[in-house]
Amino acid sequence: xxxxxxxxxxxxxxxxxxxxxxxxxxxxxxxxxxxxxxxxxxxxxxxxxxxxxxxxxxxxxxxxxxxxxxxxxxxxxxxxxxxxxxxxxxxxxxxxxxxxxxxxxxxxxxxxxxxxxxxxxxxxxxxxxxxxxxxxxxxxxxxxxxxxxxxxxxxxxxxxxxxxxxxxxxxxxxxxxxxxxxxxxxxxxxxxxxxxxxxxxxxxxxxxxxxxxxxxxxxxxxxxxxxxxxxxxxxxxxxxxxxxxxxxxxxxxxxxxxxxxxxxxxxxxxxxxxxxxxxxxxxxxxxxxxxxxxxxxxxxxxxxxxxxxxxxxxxxxxxxxxxxxxxxxxxxxxxxxxxxxxxxxxxxxxxxxxxxxxxxxxxxxxxxxxxxxxxxxxx
Length: 379
Fold this sequence. Notes:
Number of helices: 11
Helix content: 40-55%
C-alpha cells in the first residue's frame, strides 16, 4: 500500500539517514555490540548530520521539524538493525521535556549540546522496586534552600553510562504520593552522582543500560525542570509520543522481518522444493502480511494525528500495545520459518528476535497499555 503521510522532503531525509547508517554506524556496529556501548564519535556525527534535536527550534541548533522526520529516523534505524545508537530516546522521549518544560536559561544552556551530539541525555524513572508504579519511587530530594539534596538509586537506565545530562524523577513532597514528584536535572561530574555496572542484556547489546546512584548530590535549584511536584503531569503529557515512537519502530521491525523471511522461504528448499511452495508457509506469510498491513494503516494515522497535535493517550497506548505485540509475534514466527539458521546470531532474524523483546516492556508494559485503554472505556 502506498503511504500517504510523507512529503518529498521526508523521503530526501530518509536517504540522508540511510547514508549516515552506511557510513557512521554499520561499519562499527559489531564492535559496539562487543563493547556494550557505542562511540561518542557517532553521537557527534549524528549531530553534524542534523539527526539530533529534530523538533528543537532552529535558534537552539535544532531542525524545527515535525514528528514525521522522527518516524523516518526510527524506521531506518530499525531496518538497519541498529538500535544501540539510541537517537529516538534522545530526540523523541527526552527532547520534549527540554523543549516544553525548560526555562529560557535552561534551553540556552542545554539545547545546543543536545543538538550537536556533545550532550547525551537519559531519563531516570525506573528503580529496583518501582517501574510503572510512580507511587513506589523512593529516590528523594530535600529542599536545602539554594539546592536540592538528592539521594536514591535508579536502574535499567538507557544511555546510563554515556549520559551527560540525566532527568531524574524524585520525590520532593514525601506525603504527596505520585503527585509529590519533581524532575531534577543531574549533570555529569556532580559530586555524589555515580554510575553502576553496564547491565548485560539479552538484546540491544550496543546500547548502554546502567544503574545510577545518587549520594547527597547537590542539585542547583536552577536545575529543576518544570514545576515542583509536577512530574506526574509532565510524565503523562509526554508519554503519548514515547509510546508512539516505540510503536513506529515496532511496525517497522515487523515489516522488515516479514520482508527478510519472504525472501528466505523463496530460496530455501526442503524435500526438494522451496519452502514457499508449501501451503502452511504461504498461510503463515499471508497472516503476517495482513496483520502488518492493517497495523501500518493505524500507525500512519497515529503519526499523522500526532504531527497535527491530535493524538491522545488512549490511541497512543493502543498503538504501542498492538504494534509491539505484533513485532514479538512476527519475530517468533519468522525465526521459526528460518529453522536452525534463525537461531544463529549471524542471521538478522536472530538479532531482531532478541533486540525487539524489550518493546512490550519499556515505555509501559502491554498490561499497562490495556489498563489505560480499559479505564478510558469503562471508567
